[in-house]
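Subject: complex prediction, re-run

Hi both,

The earlier run crashed halfway through, so I resubmitted it with identical inputs.
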Amino acid sequence: MTIKKIQILTLVLFIFSIFTFPQEKPDGLEIITKVYNRPAGDDQSANLTMTLIDSRGNKRVREIKQFLKDDKDIEKKIMFFVAPADVRNTSFMSWSYTKEGKSDDQWIYLPALKRVKRISSDSKSDYFMGSDFTYDDLGDRQPSADNHKFIRMEKLDNEECYVIESTPKEEEYMYSRTLTWIIKDKWIGKKKEFYDEDGELLKILKVEKYEKINGYWIILHSEMKNRQKKHSTKMSLKNVKINTGIQERQFTERMMKRGI
Amino acid sequence: MSRFLKKLTNYKWAALFLIFAISFAFFMIMKSNTRMETDLDKYMPEQHPAFVYSNMAEEWFNIKDGIIIAIENRNGIYNPGTIKKIKDITKALQKMKEIEKDDVTSLYTADNIIGTEEGMDVRPFFKKLPKDEEAVKKIQQNVRNNEMIFERLVSNDEKVTVIIAEIGDDSFSQEFYHRILKMAEGFEGPEKLYVAGRPIVEGTMAYLGPRDMKRMVPIVILVIVIVLLLLLRSFKAMILTMLVVLFSTIWTFGLMAAVKIPIYAVSTMIPIMLIAIGVADAIHLYSHLHLYMKEHPLASKKEATLDMIRGMYKPVVMTSITTAVGFISLITSQVYPIKYFGMFTAFGVIMAMVLSLVLIPAGLMAFGIPNWKKKSKKEAAAAEKQLSFRFSRWVTKYKYLTIILTIVIIVVSLLGIGKVWINSSFLEKFEKDSSIVITDRFINKHFGGTSSLNIILDSTEGDAFKNPDILNLMDKLQNDVEKLKIVGNSFSLADYLKRMNKVMHADREEYNTIPDSKNLNAQYLLLYEMSGDPENLWKVVNYNYRKANLLIQLKSDNSKAINSAIDIIKKYIPEFKKLNVNLNYAGSGYKGLIFTDLILQGQILSLLLSLLIVIILLSIMFKKITAGIIGSIPIIITATISFGIMGIFNIPLSTTTALLSSIAVGIGIDYAVHFIERYKIYAGETGDKIMTGQYTMLHSGRAIVFNALVVIAGFLVLLFSAFPPNRALGALVSLNMFTSFVGTISIMYLMLYMSNIYFKKDKN
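This time it finished cleanly. Structure:
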């Protein structure tokens, strides 16, 4: 073999590897960003049923009517409690900003007090309405907040999934790492494991049901189990309507007071 | 039976070999199978309704005992160093496998419910360590403004802060106890650290008690050996007596190990019981032998041994059976360790009897009769005779004085009994100046209290604890009970709602009340769940708001303190009932109270039962009811004086001291049986009341004095124990021996004398 031939062979191998390597070792950040940016329509209305189950199997069911509007910069959300009766018409509104570093604005209206109050949300690690979901878990966490690493491909419930490991960039985040199973080509997180500060398994999120509504993939049933507290939360959406043209003015303090 | 025992003397070596072989076997079983039970929960009668309920409630609300670590900085806790320590210790505790993360409460983990201009927020006091003075000041200000935290986690003078780590009963171990103390030690300087709380008190007790016993028992044995040597004046006799006690203890613990029953704290008293009772048989046997040898200096060892068996086997068997009955009556107790204690001590007593009747004769046959002749001087024997004769004369001569004295003592004791109180306190078992008591006092001075009582409110309706009427009543109860000096603090769902109502109204004090709308309460609670960690709520209310847990912090764990709080709480039961709410109690403090009550009730019941059985047994043995009644006099006097002294000297009844009444019966009855048996024999032999009294006093009285001296000397050693309950034990056992002995030779003898029992009516 002449030197030249070796050079050519090396070059061929090099070019070959450029084309094949990305396919075998996909980029974690890219996958997570695709999930984060998966289109879900400009607006949405739905009935949310949140079932909280404690370690003894006691259940508490909350029924909520929710409206969502998403433009590029702000995601606005308003929720009205329908049941239980003693909190009926309590409403909760949040504006979350796409811009990094700007924290959410949140308001609550207590009908018995007849007043809208602002609640601050310094921490995205707060639990959402006593459930096992934090605000971050509900999809608010920016992909850039973590380092992502592709681990392997794995089949889960007959779906080909990427398994991505994410570790936070910040110190003292509530999770030391998470593992996410992401359905190939649908960009839906199918399952997620959360590990606490000490590296112990804390929670498991499973998406039980998702559907294509108006051309968008919408998660309908999911369940979060806290393995340490033996507490779990089920979220299910019904009557999901996408892109019905909900107006900007639906998301004001005045509307919060009006109720459903 | 006596024939069997006599025959046995021909097979002395076989008997000795057999006893040693059995002892060795039991020793091996004991060595490999013995297990110590340190989990105090295992001591509790699990089926008792109060325990069943408390255990259920503990699960509903995750009620556990808290280990309290107090951090004191003389210059105030608000500086970056101390704040860092709070965080570090919190994290260190959370990392321990025995402690669940959520069960650690400190300034680092606590929720701060604060009012903002526009609303309310729940956030930690700090998450990252404060970098500058200003950040520290902010924490300080936040704590001052929060009445749910100020004076609960931080002391009024801001020099002390506490970290509370709740821990399940089953995860506490000796190893963990030492590990946590060591961990705290590692954080010392410049701050001073204190570790307290019920688990620590229990741990210290479980550690100190047996350790102290281990140190004291050899000294007790040594003293008994010396006194036995002095009294029996024979090395051989002392050795055989000690072997009886030692082997009966080994057999008892061997059996316990064989049937896989663990050693409980009370079981550690079994050897002591067996020492006190086991030496008695031997002393009586040797006493008889000694007298026989004096009267028949030329008798062979076989003749002497046979006479000893003939003369003594009956009272030895009788005393052992009656003593065993006293202990067996403890199986009526609802408390398993005490049941087992009774059963195994009874077994040990019977084994001590068997060994006394087999080992001592076999030993005498094998190694010869102790060589008393040379050493015992004629004058001494004469003096002894003179003393016992004179004493018996005195008793009958000054009979009214004896009776009046007895009555006075009984009356004084009865007055004392009225003052006896039960104490379930663990803390008061320690020395007043021990570090654990000092720590406890320190924390109680700065905070709500190291002991707690849980009030469990249980409604038939869901969402009951959003109802303002019920919440207001809870608040009223809290205010009322907090007026007690002993109550430092109380905490319930009402405190959360008051705090939130105030905060939602721009921190105005007039809103520090329960809202009168059920819906508003519900909405506040929803808001709390949305902003804070709802996990904290589930410690005061259950998931569907049907049950609530009201915590009362006490500065003392003694029964008087808990009962004074309960007296106030009781008054609220009808009012809660009107609102369809039931009130119950839970928590380890309350269980301790019930537990002590149970022990005491059981103790009194079994004392009365054993008294009855003993009277019946004595009546059968001596074939006369009068004998049974007279024989029970020393026991009744001993028990009365024992309890009376406790009342007069303010010694509370506790698990240890309550069991002492069994000793009173067990030993008091021995003296009576020996005395009456001798009295009966001499009455038959002489037919003369005065002579009978004199010779009984010489023969039995001597043995009784010896026995009392040995045991009193041995147990007085316990007065030098470092552990107060062991001291009380020593003092009371000695006292019981003394009163039994005096009661037997004085008033009981007088009663025998006056009743004319065993003498024909027409006396010459």
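The radius of gyration of chain A is 22 Å.

- K.
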